[in-house]
Recover the amino acids of this structure.
């Protein structure tokens, strides 16, 4: 059974025009006390016959993927990945020389910083 404050809240929604039926009666399956507004009661309305679904789950009809990527897109991605890998490897080969030149520049900066000026 519903809590009376919950029923009152639903009746307030109906009286303000947000919903236009007796929601508490609809949920509990009892005859409706009013339609539209609680100020306009009606009687002898049959309850709504709601049946739960027989099965509540999603089953894919075909095992195939919904998204089908064309071959040309896959080939283009492969070419771009290979080109990026080659470019990255070429940059990594230059890394030791770059680190060495940065190291000499930093050490030269600190040597000149602590030199005595005449």
């Amino acid at each position: 059974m519903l809590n009376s404050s919950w029923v009152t809240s639903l009746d307030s929604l109906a009286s303000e025009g947000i919903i236009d039926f007796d929601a508490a009666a609809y949920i509990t399956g009892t005859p409706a006390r009013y339609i539209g507004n609680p100020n306009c009661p009606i009687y002898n309305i049959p309850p709504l016959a709601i049946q739960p679904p027989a099965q509540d789950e999603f089953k894919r009809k075909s095992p195939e993927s919904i998204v089908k990527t064309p071959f040309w897109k896959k080939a283009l991605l492969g070419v771009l990945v290979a080109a990026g890998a080659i470019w990255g490897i070429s940059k990594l080969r230059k890394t030791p020389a770059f680190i060495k030149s940065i190291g000499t520049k930093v050490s030269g900066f600190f040597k000149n910083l602590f030199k005595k000026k005449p």
DSSP finds four helices and no strands in the chain. The mean pLDDT is 78. The first helix runs from residue 4 to 15.
